[in-house]
Amino acid sequence: MEYMSISQAAEKWGISSRRIQVLCKQERIPGASRMGYVWAIPADAEKPRDARVKSGKYVRLTGKN
Question: 65 in a domain, yes or no?
């Protein structure tokens, strides 16, 4: 299996290297694994869908609901 680095994935998907690191840490990229200080991302991995809130409608989570 071939792997790509974070910088290669960032260039391929058009997002920042830091965002790729966050996605790897959140286990949102299937098959990505950490080897020491480096993330190995499968070369055939697809860009995960952006799950961040874009509508501006945030849900407040409190114990009072």
Answer: no
Contact 13, 24 (CB under 8 A): no
- Are 18 and 9 a contacting pair, CB within 8 Å? no
Assess whether pLDDT exceeds 60 at residue 5.
Answer: yes
Cα 25–chain centre separation: 7
Full residue range of the structural domain in which residue 28 is found: 3-42
Minimal CA–CA distance to 47: which of 8, 33, 59, 55?
A: 8
pTM for the complete prediction?
Answer: 0.75
Tokens 């961040």 identify what position?
52
Residue 60 domain-assigned? no
Residue 52: C-alpha distances to residues 39, 44, 48 (Å) = 22, 23, 11
What secondary structure letter does DSSP report for 17? H
